[in-house]
């Protein structure tokens, strides 16, 4: 009895196995080969179309190519010139540089029932272009939505004083949580920074009045000592 075929970790990550690819291609292989032949034939009779077949991939970019909707190679292509066969191949370009996006102000109800508005900035980079394209529909938009959700959920369990005094540790906790969630997408979260914490106007006035009263009390205390 033969042992069942096992998938390598890399094959499992992308949802592909060599057996499945080979099995899926059998019924359509002849038809696909015919379309490829026709595409090359059209290029031969119309050489000017060759100028549309070459794509420049920059040093900080990688291209993920598909043929008839199937991933051609797990390893991305580039940098430099790559050949794309018209009507047969499609491609997606992924930027590998460290990028950033702003999390718009989120209305958050803290643990002590204070409504605040908090925004943040997230720095990230793509470490696996193939996973970023094949494992999620839109890795950028998904990262944006997930960052906003984690920001609300994390700060919603904290008191207002903790949010104001522990911003660095809270930012680090959100960075770790977001990084773990985006790892299957090939995205590395490098840093999360809380920008502004906006308090309700009535609370701002109350805190300002309390600070003013504290200063006046200290001033009177100093005068009495003299």
UniProtKB/TrEMBL annotation:
The family database entries (SMART domains) matched by this protein are listed as:
PHB
Stretches assigned to the Band domain = 52-211
Q: Which residues form the signal peptide?
A: none
Q: Out of the domains of life, which is the source?
A: Eukaryota
Gene Ontology CC, one term? plasma membrane
Q: Where in the cell is it found?
A: Membrane
Q: What is this protein called?
A: Band 7 domain-containing protein
């Amino acid at each position: 009895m033969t042992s069942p075929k096992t998938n390598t970790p890399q094959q499992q990550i992308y949802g592909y196995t060599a057996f499945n690819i080979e099995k899926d291609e059998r019924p359509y292989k002849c038809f696909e080969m015919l379309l490829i032949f026709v595409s090359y034939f059209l290029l031969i009779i119309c050489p000017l179309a060759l100028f549309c077949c070459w794509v420049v991939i920059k040093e900080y970019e990688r291209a993920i190519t598909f043929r008839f909707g199937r991933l051609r190679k797990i390893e991305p292509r580039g940098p430099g010139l790559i050949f794309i066969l018209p009507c047969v191949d499609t491609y997606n370009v992924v930027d590998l540089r460290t990028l950033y996006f702003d999390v718009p102000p989120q209305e958050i109800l803290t643990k002590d029932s204070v409504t605040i508005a908090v925004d943040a900035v997230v720095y990230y980079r793509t470490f696996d272009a193939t996973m970023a394209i094949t494992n999620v529909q839109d890795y950028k938009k998904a990262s944006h939505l997930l960052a906003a959700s984690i920001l609300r959920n994390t700060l919603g369990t904290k008191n207002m004083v903790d949010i104001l005094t522990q911003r660095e540790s809270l930012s680090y906790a959100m960075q770790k949580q977001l990084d773990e969630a985006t790892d299957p997408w090939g995205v590395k979260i490098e840093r999360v920074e809380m920008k502004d914490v906006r308090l309700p106007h009535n609370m701002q006035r109350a805190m300002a009045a309390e600070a003013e009263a504290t200063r006046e009390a200290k001033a009177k205390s100093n005068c009495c000592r003299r």
